[in-house]
Amino acid sequence: MDVSVVIMDYLQDIKHSSKNTQVGYRQHLTVFASGHPCKGWRSSKSITASPGLPDLAENKSQATQEGLLSLDAAGQTVQIQVLGLASIAEDVSPELALATIDAIEVLGALRASAAVKAALAGRIR
Length: 125
Hints:
The protein has five helices and three strands, in the order ααβαβαβα. The chain is an alpha/beta fold. β1, α3 (65-73) and β2 (78-88) form a beta-alpha-beta unit. The protein is elongated and about 45 Å long.
């Protein structure tokens, strides 16, 4: 499913956003979908890590417990950049997130437990 469709459905069905808000988000998604050169955004979905690190998940817009545990075991960290919907799996503990996620930059929405969001508050841009 297209990331912009997921975000628009979220705004309408869950957040019950006004039509003006939805139109604004749609315009911004259209601009960013083709890439935002000053920020280096090139993909509608991406979690980036240093070369050679394992993929975090088959769905690259979600950080899974398994993927983060692999990074932790290797003593490595990740910086997450996502255009659209980024997700940190519900089974990821705040401690694991702090140990493995250096920074999160999301143009869209971040879905994670309240505890993980609180733990990463200083790292979310």
